[in-house]
Specification:
four-stranded mixed β-sheet, 124 residues, alpha+beta, Immunoglobulin-like
Length: 124
């Protein structure tokens, strides 16, 4: 009886350990959430090095309370800039990942408006 109990505990611990390892080794993601009171338009992500834009990804529109998730390309040593426009065609941009490298963790960006009605970026 004790032998079966030990085997069961061992198997449970092994499965828990494997689950933790698998959940930590996934592709990092950039999550963009729009919690403002208007759509954000012409949304684009750019991978940049110190000289030029390496890769540009057009996302389009992120509607109110929508979330967009992008898998970060860890192979590009660069930064990631988020660019979008408001309904008056004013451009907003922010570097949301300072340095991309193998093993980088993901990033969560929330776009909202401040008390003056201007878009702001909040990162966690």
């Amino acid at each position: 009886m004790k032998k079966n109990f030990r085997k069961t505990i061992f198997i449970i611990l092994l499965l828990l350990n494997l689950n933790i390892m698998c959940s930590c080794s996934g592709t990092p993601k950039l999550t963009i959430k729009n919690v403002s009171d208007e759509e954000i338009l012409k949304v684009r992500i750019e991978y940049n090095n110190s000289i030029e834009t390496i890769k540009s990804i057009d996302i389009g529109t992120i509607k109110i309370n929508d979330v967009f998730v992008h898998e970060i390309d860890e192979k590009m040593e660069s930064s990631i800039k988020l660019i979008f426009y408001d309904s008056l065609d004013k451009r907003y941009e922010e570097i949301v990942v300072g340095y991309v490298y193998q093993g980088v963790s993901g990033e969560n960006v929330t776009i909202k408006k401040n008390s003056e009605g201007k878009f702001i970026f909040e990162q966690k």
